[in-house]
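Notes from hallway chat w/ T.B., transcribed later so I don't forget. T.B. wanted the structure written out for a chain they're using in a teaching module, and asked if we could keep both sequence and structure tokens in one place. Agreed to drop them here.
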Amino acid sequence: MSEAEKSGKNYIGYDYKSVTVPGGKASLYLDAYENFGWIPDDMPPAGLYTDMSVIKLKRDRKIVNKTELTRLQRHFEACMDEISALEHSRTKMATVYSIAAGLLGTAFLAGAVFAVTAAPPLILLCAILGIPGILGWALPYQIYKKIAEKRAAAISPLIEQKYDEAHDICEKGNALIH
């Protein structure tokens, strides 16, 4: 009888994985990966939950249903990527439209400056170009807020649907390991 058999300890080989996740979602990812057989290799420092976190995981190499767990894990990761893309799209078009309004305002103000510095000064043209120029500088924030709110309202159900799908995937994974 070997020394390991006498002491009752058996060797366990592990697969290792490091995952970079958004800092605010580190707990979500830790909880989810446990449903696919992964356990934290070492706990991340408390101050790490900022912009991005690296989670180190390990899993028994001889885990039952490893292929199916890996497939479910990839499906979960795809859902989380889709959620991140949807959350990013919340402000993408709002940013584009507000920047475009600001640039258009800048162009009008530049025209107003050229009109007033012309010889002889074109005061009326300066006033006509200056008003939309000032509006182009004053309105981008309101444009941004309005478009971002509309987009957020439109994609919130989609994000919730993706979170529900991710939780269903985790449930399936949990059922396979228990």
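Follow-up for T.B.: The CA atoms of residues 72 and 169 lie 6 Å apart. Might be a good example for the class.
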